[in-house]
Every structure is written in C-alpha cells, then in structure tokens.
TrEMBL record:
GO molecular function, one term: structural molecule activity
InterPro entries membership: FliE
Protein name: Flagellar hook-basal body complex protein FliE
Main location: other
Keywords, in A-Z order: Bacterial flagellum, Cell projection, Cilium, Flagellum
PANTHER family reported for this sequence: FLAGELLAR HOOK-BASAL BODY COMPLEX PROTEIN FLIE, PTHR34653
Gene Ontology biological process terms in this record: bacterial-type flagellum-dependent cell motility
Assigned GO CC terms: bacterial-type flagellum basal body
Protein family according to the UniProt entry: Belongs to the FliE family.
Subcellular localization(s) per the UniProt record: Bacterial flagellum basal body
HAMAP family: FliE (MF_00724)
Species of provenance: Paenibacillus polymyxa (Bacillus polymyxa)
Length: 104
C-alpha cells in the first residue's frame, strides 16, 4: 500500500504552548496562522521534491538503471500529491469566496 506522508500530522488540533512560568496556554491566532503557513509551505516543498524524484527516476530509467515499476510508482505518488494539493487549494479558494459572500 502506498502511503502519502505529505499531510501526516502528529500535532493536536488545539495547540498549547508553554509560557515562561511553565504554565500551558493556548496558542494565539497569530501563532496558529504561522504554524498553518509553515505547514502549507512544507507540504508544497514535499510535492516539489516528489516531482524532482520523478524526473530523476525517469532519467535513471532511460539509462537502464531502474525498472519501469519503480518509475510508475514514483510518478503516481507525485501525481496523487499534486492532485491532493490542487484539491486543497480549490477548497481553500471556495472557503474564501464563501466568507466574502457572507454579510456582516
């Protein structure tokens, strides 16, 4: 079974941070936004790395160093990651548009 670790997150939904007094406090919206932004940046970097691995694997296939099975698996992983990224982008745009349509 092929697993896509692009969005494999081990952190809880509501993050808690430790204050200087050793007390746990909830993260502020600003801190959460930074975490979300870095999460998206890391995910996009991983998609780019998978695409580069696909190109490298294709070059190795042409040189006769790897089997077609490995090339197809790598290319399908990159394709699925790209499709997932596209769907996440589409949902984010839809959510933004819905927020803009709401009346205040």
């Amino acid at each position: 079974m092929i697993q896509n670790a692009m969005f494999n997150v081990q952190t809880p939904v509501i993050q808690q941070i430790q204050s200087p007094n050793n007390e746990l406090t909830k993260a502020t919206p600003s801190e959460s936004l930074k975490d979300f932004g870095s999460f998206l940046k890391d995910a996009l970097n991983e998609v780019g790395q998978q695409e580069a691995a696909t190109h490298q694997m294709s070059d190795q296939f042409m040189a006769g160093k790897v089997d077609v099975d490995q090339v197809m698996i790598t290319s399908q992983q990159a394709l699925l990651s790209l499709q997932l990224t596209t769907q996440v982008r589409n949902k984010a745009i839809e959510a933004y548009q819905e927020i803009m349509r709401t009346q205040m």
